[in-house]
Amino acid sequence: MTSPTAASTRDGRGVGLARDDAAKRYTATVDGGLAALAEFIPTPELVVFTHTETDPAFEGQGVASELVRWALDDVRARGLRVLPLCPFVKAYVERHADAYGDLVYTSRTTVVHD
Predict the structure, then answer these.
(1) What is the percent of the chain where pLDDT is above 70?
(2) How many C-beta neighbours within 10 Å does residue 6 have?
(3) What's the CA gap between 10 and 85, in Å, rounded?
(4) Looking at residues 22-37, what average pLDDT do you find?
(5) Strand-pair partners of 30
């Protein structure tokens, strides 16, 4: 597990952010409880984001967005790419294409064979 990093909710509560490699997920905690998570599948070249979930008590507080931003920054720092299968992560990357569009994995194949 990576060392927790702090952010805050829209109402000012502290958010702890961490990568849990054993559970294959990034987590966001508020007041010591799990507020959001982003599940991933690691590969040698990229991180596949498969699912993001937010506790309903924290929806609209920006917790999932802070978590995804931090996770994408972590992926970049490790020199990897992302494959955002999760609709939330995909939408986040599209909304912030100037900051994270370069992280998205694209196939090197240009020819399709049947």
Answers:
(1) 92
(2) 10
(3) 27
(4) 96
(5) 15, 33
Q: CA angle, 32 as apex, 62 and 11 as ends, to 5°?
A: 35
Q: How far apart are CA 70 and CA 26, in angstroms?
A: 9
Phi-psi region of 62 (alpha: psi -120 to 50; beta: other; left: phi over 0): left
**In the chain, where the domains are located:** 5-103
The class that CATH gives domain 5-103 is: alpha beta
What are the Cα distances from residue 42, in Å, to 22, 30, 45, 50, 75? 11, 26, 8, 11, 10
- Residue 112 scores a pLDDT above 60: yes
What's the whole-number mean pLDDT along residues 81-106?
A: 97
Query: Is the CB of residue 79 less than 8 Å from the CB of residue 47?
Result: no
